[in-house]
């Protein structure tokens, strides 16, 4: 299969990572030759900023890979697993930390239970002091009951209106259509 249809270079298939490293080294050497030809070193020994920037671009690792190259997967070396010898001090430290964690969890659970009991006791204390709260409340208004009754009646009427409104609108629409029909028949 030839990838040269798109006008670019053909795809390079490499057999190993060493082939890739060899190609990169050759490309960098050729780039260095062209760089020396285009930007010869200065005779006074000074730094050439443009030359340094171009060298940095040529040597950058981001330029080392290409989408036109592929390296088949090579068998990788298995990572060797090494075990540390048993350490009694570390085992004791782990056991101490586990017991400390359990103690802290028990403390948290006890605090949750105590908090709930305190809240319940506080609630019971408020219930006992209702008489004191009644003394602190202002006296009821003279027309309070009448105002509340009228408000409940208005809320009920609005509820009925909201419930009945769609049927009333439908009746009005039917009446309008019937009126237009009678008017057009004459």
Q: Please mark out the parts with pLDDT under 50 across 5 or more consecutive residues, or reply none.
A: none
Give the C-alpha Rg: 45 Å
Number of strands: 2
Q: What is the average of the pLDDT values?
A: 80
Fraction of residues in helix: 55-70%
Give the termini distance in whole angstroms: 86 Å
Helix and strand string, N-terminal first? EHHEHHH
Widest beta sheet: strand line-up: 1-2
The shape is: flat
Protein name: Kinetochore Mis14
Region (Disordered): 57-83
Biased composition (Low complexity): 60-71
Organism: Beauveria brongniartii RCEF 3172
Tell me briefly what this model is.
With about 190 residues, the protein is an all-alpha fold.
Key phrases:
mainly alpha; 66% helix; 2% strand
Structure description:
The protein is mainly alpha-helical. Among the domains are: 9-70, no CATH class; 89-135. 66% of the residues lie in helices and 2% in strands. It contains five helices and two strands; from the N terminus they run E-H-H-E-H-H-H. Strands 1-2 form a two-stranded parallel sheet. The protein is flat. The mean pLDDT is 80.
């Amino acid at each position: 299969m030839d990838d040269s249809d798109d006008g670019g270079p053909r795809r390079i298939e490499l057999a190993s990572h060493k082939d890739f490293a060899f190609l990169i080294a050759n490309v960098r050497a050729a780039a260095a030759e062209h760089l020396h030809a285009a930007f010869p070193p200065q005779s006074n020994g000074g730094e050439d900023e443009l030359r340094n920037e171009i060298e940095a671009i040529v040597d950058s690792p981001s330029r080392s890979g290409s989408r036109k190259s592929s390296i088949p997967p090579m068998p990788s070396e298995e990572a060797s697993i090494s075990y540390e010898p048993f350490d009694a001090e570390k085992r004791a430290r782990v056991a101490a930390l586990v017991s400390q964690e359990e103690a802290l969890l028990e403390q948290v659970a006890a605090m949750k239970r105590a908090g709930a009991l305190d809240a319940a006791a506080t609630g019971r204390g408020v219930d006992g002091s209702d008489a004191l709260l009644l003394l602190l409340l202002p006296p009821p208004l003279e027309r309070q009951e009448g105002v509340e009754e009228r408000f409940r009646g208005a809320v009920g009427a609005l509820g009925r209106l909201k419930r009945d409104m769609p049927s009333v609108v439908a009746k009005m629409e039917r009446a309008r259509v019937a009126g237009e029909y009678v008017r057009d028949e004459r």
